[in-house]
Amino acid sequence: MATSSSDLLKELRIDRKAPPEPSGGGRGLWIALGAVGVLALLGVGGWALFGRDNAPQVRTASAVAIGGAGGGNASVLDATGYVVARRMATVSAKITGRVREVLIEEGMRVEAGQVMATLDPIDADAERSLANAQLGAAQSDTARVQAQLKEAEANAVRLSALVKQQLVARSQYDQAVAERDALRASLLTSQRNAKVAGDRLRIADIGVDNTVVRAPFSGVVTAKAAQPGEIVSPLSAGGGFTRTGIGTIVDMDSLEVEVDVGESFIGRVQPKMPVEATLNAYQDWKIPAEVIAIIPAADRGKATVKVRIALKVKGDPRIVPDMGVRVSFLEPAKPVAANQPKPGVLVPAAALTQRDGADAVFVVENEKALRRTVKTGRSLGDDREILEGVSGGETVVLDPPESLSDGARVRVAAENADNAQAGDESAPSSE
């Protein structure tokens, strides 16, 4: 035990004859390596700062596919607009009156002729009662005159026989005939008065019916404007405190889309053209549609033309008026002949340039401009069809400078010229 303790103490003894560790050698190596790394970082940063800034700044646009291998539909123009109802009405009463009850609520479906509200009928009922009484008086007067005329006609016949027998004076007979003729005229007047009274009663019935507000067509109530006790008037005669309507009805089967297409692109739109609509609220729902008509009038303020589009989906509760919608005008599918080149993509005409005697386009990839020799097709307004060399979705350089070479580094302008691209152009909205 003692020997073990001695050995342990010897191991703990400091050897003062051992050579000292070299000082500063390893630390100098690390300092040198750090300096090289800093210089490398400074070189990379300087290149990124000065070399990138020296790259030319270019404007770009996206190539838009207009056809596929199977000849299917492809978008030739995009636009934005709103869902509108062709059949919508704010229902009001024909007369001014106080609302007694309102039988509608927002979201409620009503049928044509269904009662929406009733007005206080006191005045109308009073007018009808008066007209009914006048008709009764006229009919009674007619009956009285008819009885008198019957007696006068019998008296004239009797006196006519007596005059022939010279039993009565001729003047007495003439007086009886005059009385008979006067009663005939009175009967005609009384009958006409009775007819006028009957017409007045029918008008009074219409006045009573006007106190009942009915739905003009089947639809869905989108707004409830009046409450019981309020005054309604079709002319708003009572000023700001008078309602002009009971509620608003929309025929959901008449919903369609209206978009504003820029004048520069309206030539691509044709009646009966297939359209694909996408509601802003349901981005994954592609609704089939078609162009109804191009309104033959332009908005000089926005330089747009209104286009009506019919939705082929009817009665879907997800489609409601005033919804924002984006539409894509599609190129009709056409059979492609064996010897006919298939349509490719559309690019702005400004993207085309001449290099080595051939049409070329510069495509931007990883901040580099790559030259592509292309085969061109049709001219569509300010755009050109590219049959070979560029794919849909690629970014092309607009107005490439003569000094731009293949593989040169470029900087994309902050304000890009996407308004000139084909197929991805959104017409100005009505907002």
Can you walk through the features of this model?
- The structure is a single chain.
- With 431 residues, the protein is an alpha+beta fold.
- It folds into four domains: 57-74 and 337-427, conserved putative lor/sdh protein from methanococcus maripaludis s2 fold; 79-86 and 252-330, Efflux pump adaptor protein, beta barrel domain (Elongation Factor Tu (Ef-tu), domain 3); 88-117 and 211-248, RNA polymerase II/Efflux pump adaptor protein, barrel-sandwich hybrid domain (OB fold (Dihydrolipoamide Acetyltransferase, E2P), Beta Barrel); 122-207.
- Helices cover 28% and strands 33% of the residues.
- The chain is built from four helices and 26 strands.
- The strands form six sheets. The chain has a six-stranded antiparallel beta barrel. The chain has a four-stranded antiparallel beta sheet with strand order 2-17-22-21, with no helix packed on it.
- Helix 3 (122-164) packs antiparallel against helix 4 (170-209).
- The longest helix is centred in the first third of the chain and has 43 residues, at 122-164.
- The N and C termini lie far apart (99 Å).
